[in-house]
């Protein structure tokens, strides 16, 4: 798999990107503004990446990238 696909898989494990998107999605611009403001004021708390432990894989580029982003690697 590509590095982008692998990163997407990792980030989907650390927080729900689709849920974030759905929280503010709207066809109506005023509703979008209201939803975004509500979401911004009640932004979910995410754990820092260093709190997430990932085990090294055979993908050296992915391992190095996760390490440089601050993930804990074992």
What does this structure look like?
- It is built from four helices and two strands.
- The chain has helices at 3-14, 17-24, 29-41, 60-69, and strands spanning 53-54, 72-73.
- It has a two-stranded parallel sheet with strand order 1-2.
- β1, α4 and β2 (72-73) form a beta-alpha-beta unit.
- It is elongated, with a radius of gyration of 16 Å.
- It starts with a helix and ends with a strand.
User: What's the shape?
Assistant: elongated
The order of strands across the largest sheet is 1-2
CATH fold name: Ribosomal Protein S8, Chain: A, domain 1
> What's the CATH architecture?
2-Layer Sandwich
Summarize the main sheet.
2 strands, parallel
Series of H and E elements:
HHHEHE
Distance between the termini: 21 Å
Main attributes?
mainly alpha; 74 residues; two-stranded parallel sheet; 58% helix; 2 strands; Ribosomal Protein S8, Chain: A, domain 1
